[in-house]
Predict the structure of Ubiquinol-cytochrome C chaperone.
Amino acid sequence: MFGLFRTTRRGAAVRRLYGAIVAQARTPHFYAACGVPDTVAGRLDLLMLHLALFLRRLAGEPDEMRPLGQAVFDGFARDIENQLREFGLGDHTVPKQMRAVVESFYGRLKAYDSALEEAGNGALEAALARNLFAGEVADPARLPHLASYVRAVVAHLAAQPATAFAAGELAFPDPGGPFD
């Protein structure tokens, strides 16, 4: 009985964390001011960006935080699978599409990690242009703002204690800036 309570409480925390990630990715500023395409692909890419940044933050925590990150990722995978099924994809197609989504996610995670390790924003702007604009040409004037936002998210997440994440509390900075 007590194990069930802990699982339920963790499940609620995971749902709140994933909900915060989804809400941030749906912020209209990204589409209106930053030029990210307001398409299924653009929304998915913003979702993957925010999830990647959150998981990157958890990677710096002790091993006991890994199940939390895995649970949030699993929630993402379930959500995407449900969305694919709502789009009318059949049982034979969904696993192939999910494999592609997961591979895309891990590719983006690696690209963002690598870009964030470099000084300056050139590599980060290139990664954002390549991933957020789904083959469309990104407005180069908007990329510095997006890169600054990503660095602000990294700093903002670093300032939040892991205990807050375990309780389902997650906050992101305003994507409109300003970023210091």
